[in-house]
Every structure is written in C-alpha cells, then in structure tokens.
Amino acid sequence: MWKWLHPYAKPERSYELASTLLPWFSVSAVITLVIGLVWGLAFAPVDYQQGESYRIIFIHVPAATLAMSTYMAMATAAFVGMVWQLKLADAAAAAIAPVGAVLTAVALITGSAWGKPMWGTWWIWDARLTTELILLFIYIGIIALHNSFEDKVLAGRAAGILTLVGVINIPIIKYSVEWWNTLHQGATISKFEKPSMPSEMLIPLLINILGFALMIGALSIIRFRNEVIDRNSMRPWVRELVERESI
Amino acid sequence: MHFETLADFIDMGGYGFYVWLSYGAAFALLMTLTIMSVRGRQSLFKKIRAKQMREQKLKAYRTGNNNEPKT
Predict the structure, then answer these.
(1) Which residues 2-41 of chain B have a CB within 8 Å of chain A?
(2) What is the pLDDT of residue A184?
(3) Does the distance separating the beta carbons of B22 and A60 come in below 8 Å?
(4) The whole model's pTM is what?
(5) Distance (Å, whole) CA B11 – CA B56
C-alpha cells in the first residue's frame, strides 16, 4: 500500500488526483442536493408536533453533524502533518478549515431560526448551542493561525496544535445533549437504535447528508488545489500549468 | 407533492419566515464560500502570471544589456 500511496506525497501527483476527483464530487453533490432538498421541502410529510417548521432539519442536521466530521478530517490531516512532517497534509488541513467554519455557521443560523418558533428564543446559553459556538471560534482561530505566518511550515504547526487541542470539543458537542439538561433534542439518527423518524422523512434527510458530504468534498478539493498551487508557485510544474491555462 | 398550492408552499404552515430564512442563509453562506474558493484560484494564477512576466522582462533587460557592444 505504501508503494501505491507514496507518489501522492508529491504535490504534482496530488494536484492531478484532486483535479480528476473534482468533477465527480461537484456533479454528484449538485444532483443529490437538488433531489434531497426538493424532496425535503416539498414532498416529505408534515411533522405532527412541529408542523412545517421541521423542514429546517434537512439543512440543520447535515450541516451540524458534518461540521463535526469535517473537524475530525481536518484534525487527521493536521496530525499527519505534524507527525510525519508532510507538507501536503498541512495544505489539506488549511483547505478544510474554512469549509468547516461555514458549515458550523450554517448549523448555528438554521438552529437559531428553528429555535425561535419552537422554543420561543433565537438563542440560549445551553450546552449544545454553546459548544457548537465554541466550535465556530476554534475554526476561526485555526484559519487565523494558518494566515498569520508567511512561513507555511510554521503556520501548519501552530494551527495543527490548536486543531489537535480543539478535538476535545467534538465529543463534548456530541454528548452534550445527554450529559446536561438541554432544550436541544437528542440525536434523531443513531447507529445502534432504530431512528426516531419515519422513513418518508429519514430518506430525504439521509440524501441531504450525503449531498452535503459530497459538497464538502468538492469545496475541500477546490481549496486544496489552491493551497497546493500557492505553496508551490515557484515550481516548474505550476508555471507550466499557469501557462497552459492562460490561453 | 405535499402542498396544494404555491402559496401554501411559501407559507409553510405559518413558519415560512423561519424556514426560508434558514434555507436562504444556508444558500448564501455556501454560495459565498464556493465563489470565494473558485475566485481564489483565478487570483493565484494572476499573481503567478504577473511574477512570470516580471521575471521575463528582467531577463530580457539583462541579456539585452550584455549583448550590447561596448563602446
């Protein structure tokens, strides 16, 4: 496996791989999101308790769960970058951070707009909401650190430390609804138990989660390519690429 | 189709404002990120191209000077 993996430590090969994957991710993301959102908004049945307001779930849950998964992906990249001094892993971590930050913001805003009609308030300093807000601040801190140093190796190390320390927040977010009394409802989908949702609502929700995941993949790839070009702008292969595309 | 009319769809059983606020904000944020990411590539290419041009000019200037016969 190492022999197969090794060439991708070269920026040029990684860039090529990213370019091959990008159209697949973008096209499948658009298709799944259109199907999932139209289904969720116009075809899924109404909730007996929350009425039509529950339709916010089709963006709130994908954004919130995947904001955490995205953080773990970024932390994995940061860990690899720190332990094996792999520059491309740092580039990947730097590429993923803004995507995760935007997802967290989406989760907070949609949650707020859902909380107002259901709980009667836009915001409450409750365990789930507060830890999610902290996640947004950690993301912003990581982005700021990546941009604070001209030297990208140093930037990667500084941001990597914050990323790894910030991992502690992820299980706290996940279990906040169980550990503390909170307004926020418990998990709707769980790996081991039967989902507390009929399949007419669950299927569009799962499609949207898949769509969001593909979209996150596409955005991360776009940003990863930018990071690679930026960090290798003096290399001949980048110069050739620029010349080739400037016609 | 769950809704009878378009007006029903927009009204969302009285929750229209909150539902469309959520979808609108999510769309706006994700669109902004997408546009910024795509534009980032263009501005990088521009930067690199400008640098190349500068270097070529410098090179041409230097070789031009060297080739000039000394008087």
Answers:
(1) 2-3, 9, 12-15, 18-19, 21-23, 25-26, 29-30, 32-34, 37-38, 40-41
(2) 84
(3) yes
(4) 0.90
(5) 62
Interface test with A, best of B43, B48, B59 (most A CBs within 10 A): B48
Q: Which residues of A touch B21 (CB under 8 A)?
A: 113
- What are the domain boundaries of chain A? 13-245
For residues A136-149, give the mean pLDDT: 96
- How high is the pLDDT of residue A57? 93
Sign of CA dihedral A153, A157, A158, A164: positive
Q: Given this model, what pLDDT does residue B66 score? A: 60
Residue A47's SS3 state is strand
Chain B residue closest in CA terms to A115:
B18
pLDDT band at A89 (very low <50, low <70, confident <90, very high): very high
Residues B40, B46: Cα–Cα separation, whole Å? 10
- What is the sign of the dihedral through the CA atoms of B58, B62, B65 and B68? negative
Contact A182, A128 (CB under 8 A): yes
Retrieve residue A44's tokens.
Answer: 């899924």
ipTM of the complex, rounded to two decimals: 0.89
Structure tokens at A162: 């914050």
